[in-house]
Amino acid sequence: MAALMWISHSERPLKVDELCHALGVEVGSPNLDADDVPSIGTLLACCQGLVTVDKEASTVRLIHYTLHEYLRAHPELFGTVHSTMAETCLSYLNSQQVRDLSTRPSPDIKGTAFLEYSSVYWGVHAKRDLSGCANLLALKLFGDYNNHISIRTLLKALESIGYSYGIDFDKPHLMSGLHCASFFGIVEIVTDLIEVEGCDINQRDCVDNTPLVWAALNGHEGVIEILLKRGDICSDKAGRFGQGTLWCAAFNGHVGVTKMLLERSEVNPNKPDNDGRTPLWSAAYNGHAEVVKMLLERSEVTPDKPHNDGRTPLWSAACDGHTQVVKMLLQRSEVNPDKPDNDGRTPLWSAAYNGHADVVKKLLERSEVNPDNLNKNGQTPLWRAAYNGKAEVVRMLLQRSEVNPDKPDNDGRTPLWSAAYNGHAEVVKMLLERGEVNPDNLNMNGQTPLWRAAYNGKVEVVKMLLQRSEVNPDKPDNDGRTPLWSAAYSGHAEVVKMLLERSEVTPDKPHNDGRTPLWSAAYNGHTEVVKILLEQSEVNPDKPHNDGRTPLWSAADYGHAEVVKMLLERSEVNPDNLNMNGQTPLWRAAFNGKAEVVKILLQRSEVNPDKPDNDGRTPLWSAAYNGHMEVVGMLLGRDGINPSKSDNGGQTPLQLATMI
């Protein structure tokens, strides 16, 4: 029954060793006895087929999820579940074996499989049901808590989930028992600890949080109430990053704690953290409408106060789509509904960016809001919505006469361009229906919407744009790369086919460096595209780059064997062509150790296997230089290879081989 209790009521799935060690703990015992730890085989046998091991996750689970649900819903079957689990965890942590563990950064924790779970979750179980035994065991643990390994284990777990980060474990004081009990919200233990002589209830821990801040973060009203009764409590003392108790409670939406703190005269309800974010800002950011309402009732609160980056509470609520909070803030006359952040992004811009249509609608109802406002990059709300494919928002913005549907950003990219870039066909369709939109507009690099859609393989968008008579399907960018070139380079065969169906498209048009669509496809090993292009009579399969590298040379360079085979089937292709450095395809394949390509090229009678480049380095030399012994062996098997042939610097392949 104990195994079923742990499996069904643990805070996370237990690993095999964790469960076995938990079952081996004797509550209250000062030592752990390895003989009491059952084997997994014994455990499974005792559970009579109700338990199994998830081999992929190395965790133990019940065989049927319905059984897990039933046992979870009926804790009374096991008696006092959570107090028993808390007692077990605390007994484990208080054992001499665990207490003897070093608190240095990398202690040897072999044999303490239950350490992590006990350290992180004992308090969760204790809060749910604290027995007198668990209370005593917790106080015993806290007797020397700062030097106990469990404190580091807990802090590291919190750090890993983003609860606290950048913890300085070298600080002499990490966390007290009061901090820990306040974090978990265990009222009885907090009550006992604050009565201890010399207890500093305002002490900061290693992350600069006080016990009150931890309780506020987690919404533990009972602990808050006890701590606030102390006359020496500093209820407005900021924790980490300047975030006070009220800020923490507001950020996490803890209504009860927020209410309690707002009743304290010393608590400043408008106090910002180090980043300038007020409690109202933090509540609005997370959409905690009830907390926002409470804060707005306070006259000290500035409802439009921006944080250091210029984002107001309205901005942050709009960005995350918290419609109810947006509505509340818009009712305040002090709130500027069009106030931009430091990057020029307004609340409307941020809502459009994330596609929050209801918020966009609310903001557009305000006359002060400019629906075509630019951010610092020259991007309008429409531009950003189009870029992210937020069709509903795009539709709403296009209904506004003030919105220019073809307004480019600072890089010359229009809303249509940005939608085409990401393949948002529905948005592209809407924009193309507008007469003001130029479907062939160029960005600063000379790339049209078609060019970019082709490059990214957005088939549906390419199809739509090719239906427009204004679109030039062969328009090159500033580097001379056509839409066909860009599609071939990226290996988008379907787009290549569509473009080749257009008579205006030149299938062998090189870009400024002389690389043709075929060259770029061969270079990247796009076999299907190479095949399509080779079927075009206008395509020269041996057309070199400006530095003399042919499609075959580029395919050999990167070891694209299938492409090499296809090119060698064409009689026009010279398999021994030289680039500007006098290097043949074989030379380059040997240099890079592309054994399969070397083998293919060596089968061609036209290929000179010992042909040196301009520096006198032969294919054998280049293979030996890079240690490609398989290629070296293949070349040495050919007649006419001179292993003693030196390069212009006097080094021979044989000398290079002895240096490897």
Characterise the protein shown here.
The protein has 660 residues and is an all-alpha fold. The protein has a domain at 1-143. Helix content is 47%, strand content 1%. It has helices spanning 2-9, 16-23, 40-46, 65-73, 81-94, 96-99, 115-128, 132-142, 149-160, 177-184, 187-194, 211-218, 221-228, 245-251, 255-262, 279-285, 289-296, 313-319, 323-330, 347-353, 357-364, 381-387, 391-398, 415-421, 425-432, 449-455, 459-466, 483-490, 493-500, 517-523, 527-534, 551-557, 561-568, 585-591, 595-602, 619-625, 629-636, 653-659, and strands at residues 51-54, 59-62. It has a two-stranded antiparallel ribbon with strand order 1-2. A hairpin with a 4-residue loop joins strand 1 and strand 2 (59-62). Helix 14 (245-251) runs parallel beside helix 16 (279-285), helix 18 (313-319) runs antiparallel to helix 19 (323-330) and helix 34 (585-591) packs parallel to helix 36 (619-625). The radius of gyration is 35 Å and the shape is extended. The model has no long low-confidence stretch (mean pLDDT 93).
What does this entry show, briefly?
The protein is mainly α and 660 residues long.
Characteristic key phrases:
mainly alpha; single chain
Q: Helices, strands, pairings?
A:
Elements: H1 2-9, H2 16-23, H3 40-46, E1 51-54, E2 59-62, H4 65-73, H5 81-94, H6 96-99, H7 115-128, H8 132-142, H9 149-160, H10 177-184, H11 187-194, H12 211-218, H13 221-228, H14 245-251, H15 255-262, H16 279-285, H17 289-296, H18 313-319, H19 323-330, H20 347-353, H21 357-364, H22 381-387, H23 391-398, H24 415-421, H25 425-432, H26 449-455, H27 459-466, H28 483-490, H29 493-500, H30 517-523, H31 527-534, H32 551-557, H33 561-568, H34 585-591, H35 595-602, H36 619-625, H37 629-636, H38 653-659
Antiparallel strand pairs: 1-2
Helix pairs in contact: 1-4, 5-7, 5-8, 7-9, 10-11, 10-12, 11-13, 12-13, 12-14, 14-15, 14-16, 15-17, 16-17, 16-18, 18-19, 18-20, 19-21, 20-21, 20-22, 22-23, 22-24, 23-25, 24-25, 24-26, 26-27, 26-28, 27-29, 28-29, 28-30, 30-31, 30-32, 31-33, 32-33, 32-34, 34-35, 34-36, 35-37, 36-37, 36-38
